[in-house]
Amino acid sequence: MKTIIEPFRIKMVEPIKLTTPEQRRELIASAHYNPFRLAAEDVIIDLLTDSGTSAMSSQAWGALMQGDESYAGARSWYRFRDTVKDIFGFEQVIPTHQGRAAEHILFGVMVKSDSIVPNNTHFDTTRANIEFCGGTAVDIPCAEAGDLDSRFPFKGNMDTAALKQMVAEHGPERIPLIMVTMTNNSGGGQPVSMANIREISAIAREAGIPFYIDACRFAENAHFIKRREPGFENTPVIDIAREMFSCADGCTMSAKKDSFANIGGFLCTNDGELAHRERNVLILTEGFPTYGGMAGRDLEAIAVGLREILDENYLDYRLFSTRYVVEHLHDAGIPVVLPAGGHAVYLDARRFLPGIEPLQYPGQALAVELYIEAGIRGVEIGSVMFGLDPHTGEEHPSRNELVRLAIPRRVYTQSHMDYVIEAIGQVWQRRAGIRGLKIVRAPRFLRHFTAEFEWIEA
User: What would the pLDDT profile of 16-51 be if each residue is shown by its tens digit?
Assistant: First the structure.
């Protein structure tokens, strides 16, 4: 097999500030042991998120200069709208400044105090926006998702038998929509198969319940289908994407992921009356319906990025580079979620640090130690992020205790990833001495962004 190279050339660089472990101990302590609170310049390899952190192309930067900043009906709006309609296929396109804004509008219009919203696995802002409206976010991942070592190719699938049972029990009266996140971010960046998408769509349409896709990594999911699902080997990725969305009634999208943009998003539907209500909320919270909180230059960049993300040479490189890290860690005996997802590497903190109880937050402890060891910033996806019930204040261990290392698009090279592999191996060697953490201050919703921690005394 030939070496898969980065399908781009670098023409501008940004210097990285190098720090020592002693400096990083002081920095993370000052940040109350929460990597979100670190200054970005004090991070060597920033894998906190792939959202808004990608490198834009020369074509996208050129498009920025063409941005029409007219308040209403700008030329850039029509270019953006037409691109979204061509790829996603929905009639109504509502721009927002990022994905969580689209979620806030969608759930604010559709979710009531007794609503139940099923998903393969809700991510943090999706769950929080549902709960903020008084609804209940229910995760029903497929059974294979529970085995982190399994190489089942579509561990992002929804358990459709459980979905049928939920629909039969509660009906459309309490289920305002069914949602699927692709790829499944909370579950290891795992893809959803076309067969599963079709089955969910059939269940939803039989019950008269709208089916929505969280589409922020749609191109990666489509490419996984091409590479892993029989019958799609020779289908262009753009056609796979179009078929995925043809099964749905709408979508939310963070353009900060699979369109390389630094800001932006949108909400789509085929329901004109629903779109009218959503636009009324948009005007109150985001802006006029032809810019939705974005500048014209942002609309232009997204229109370019949505085309570029569908380049299959790029997608081959993207998925291979993530797999490169996962397989090296797995070969070293380090517990990692298998198979490799598209956008991130997921360390299994529960097995990495088996001596730390879930409510002493092994994922947070591991994220802190990675920063101290090598200046690598990741994020906990476990009991800090998902353990607190915001309505009751009760805390329960999360299904998994993970650390996500999300890889920005077109930012780091293989040598950076080799550095990451080596650093994780060094933390693995001294894992027995790592302690747990306790929360000393946190908000009720989305506490992982701003929570303050202290080490638990040995």
Answer: 999 999 999 999 999 999 999 999 999 999 999 999
* Distance separating alpha carbons of residues 231 and 308, to the nearest angstrom: 24
Q: Tell me the C-alpha distance between 371 and 181, whole Å.
A: 29
Q: Are the CB atoms for 172 and 198 separated by under 8 Å?
A: no
**Preceding amide of 160 cis, omega within 30:** no
Long-range contacts of 140-145 (CB under 8 A, 24+ apart): 140/166, 141/184, 141/187, 142/196, 145/120, 145/121, 145/184, 145/187, 145/188, 145/190
In 25-102 the beta strands, taken as DSSP E runs, fall at 45-46, 92-96
Measured distance CA(214)–CA(235) in Å, rounded? 22
Reading the block at residue 242, the tokens are 């179009």
CA distance linking residue 112 with residue 127, whole number of Å: 14
Question: Per DSSP, what are the bridge partners of residue 377?
Answer: 46
Q: Please measure the distance between the N-terminal and C-terminal CA atoms of the chain and give it in whole angstroms.
A: 49
pLDDT in tens, 169-201: 999 999 999 999 999 988 899 999 999 999 999
DSSP codes joined into one string, 154-223: TTT-B-HHHHHHHHHHHHHHH---EEEESSBTTTTSB---HHHHHHHHHHHHHHT--EEEE-TTHHHHHH
Half-sphere exposure of residue 281, counting CA atoms within 13 Å on the CB side? 18
Structural domains of the chain ordered from first start: 21-50+311-455 (3.90.1150.10), 58-308 (3.40.640.10)
Instruction: Report d(CA 225, CA 381) in Å as an integer.
Output: 25
